[in-house]
C-alpha cells in the first residue's frame, strides 16, 4: 500500500500541470484537487519522519482549502508550493550539520573528504538557486495568466531543466572530479 501510494502520488504530481491544464475546462478541478488531497493525506499517514508528515499535511491542507473555497485558480500555485518546499528542504540543510546533498553523497562515500563536503555544499546552493528560479517562473506565469506557457513550463520545461542540472552535475562529478 505504501509503495503504491508513493508511486501514484509521484506519477500524478509529475503529470499534474498537464492534467490540470487540459482538464480545467472539463471539471478536472474537483477530481484532481480531491485526488491530490487524498494522496497527500495518505502520504502524511505513512511518512517516516515528522518533517515529511508536516509537509504532506501542508500540501493536503492546500488542496482541501482549494476544494472548500472553490478556487480553481489556486491550482496553478501547486508547482510554486513544491518549489518553495524543495527550496526550504535544500536551503534549510545549508544551516544544518550536513547538507541534503552531503547526506546523499555519504550513502555512497561514508568517509567524504573535506573537499567533497565543500562540493556538496556548493551543489546544494546551486539546487537552491534552481528552486528559486523555478518557483519564480511558475509564479510569474500564473500571475500573468499565461496558462499555455505555465503548462509548457511546469509540465515539460522545468523537468527538462532539472534533468539537465542533475545530469550535468553527475557528468562533472564523474569526468572532472573523478568521484
UniProtKB/TrEMBL annotation:
<feature type="transmembrane region" description="Helical">
    <location>
        <begin position="150"/>
        <end position="172"/>
    </location>
</feature>
<feature type="transmembrane region" description="Helical">
    <location>
        <begin position="29"/>
        <end position="46"/>
    </location>
</feature>
<keyword id="KW-0472">Membrane</keyword>
<feature type="transmembrane region" description="Helical">
    <location>
        <begin position="76"/>
        <end position="96"/>
    </location>
</feature>
<feature type="transmembrane region" description="Helical">
    <location>
        <begin position="7"/>
        <end position="23"/>
    </location>
</feature>
<feature type="transmembrane region" description="Helical">
    <location>
        <begin position="126"/>
        <end position="144"/>
    </location>
</feature>
<protein>
    <submittedName>
        <fullName>Integral membrane protein</fullName>
    </submittedName>
</protein>
<keyword id="KW-0812">Transmembrane</keyword>
<feature type="transmembrane region" description="Helical">
    <location>
        <begin position="55"/>
        <end position="70"/>
    </location>
</feature>
<keyword id="KW-1133">Transmembrane helix</keyword>
Amino acid at each position: 500500500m505504501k509503495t503504491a501510494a508513493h508511486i501514484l502520488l509521484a506519477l500524478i504530481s509529475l503529470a499534474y500541470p498537464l492534467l490540470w491544464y487540459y482538464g480545467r475546462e472539463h471539471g478536472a478541478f474537483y477530481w484532481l484537487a480531491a485526488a491530490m488531497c487524498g494522496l497527500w493525506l495518505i502520504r502524511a499517514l505513512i511518512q517516516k519522519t515528522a518533517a515529511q508528515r508536516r509537509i504532506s499535511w501542508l500540501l493536503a491542507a492546500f488542496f482541501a482549502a482549494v476544494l472548500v473555497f472553490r478556487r480553481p485558480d489556486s491550482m496553478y500555485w501547486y508547482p510554486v508550493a513544491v518549489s518553495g518546499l524543495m527550496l526550504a528542504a535544500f536551503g534549510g540543510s545549508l544551516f544544518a550539520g550536513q547538507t541534503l546533498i552531503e547526506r546523499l553523497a555519504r550513502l555512497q562515500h561514508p568517509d567524504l573528504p573535506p573537499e567533497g563536503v565543500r562540493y556538496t555544499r556548493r551543489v546544494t546552493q546551486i539546487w537552491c538557486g534552481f528552486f528559486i528560479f523555478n518557483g519564480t517562473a511558475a509564479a510569474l506565469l500564473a500571475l500573468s495568466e499565461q496558462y499555455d506557457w505555465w503548462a509548457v513550463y511546469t509540465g515539460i520545461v522545468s523537468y527538462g531543466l532539472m534533468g539537465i542540472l542533475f545530469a550535468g552535475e553527475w557528468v562533472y562529478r564523474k569526468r572532472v572530479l573523478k568521484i
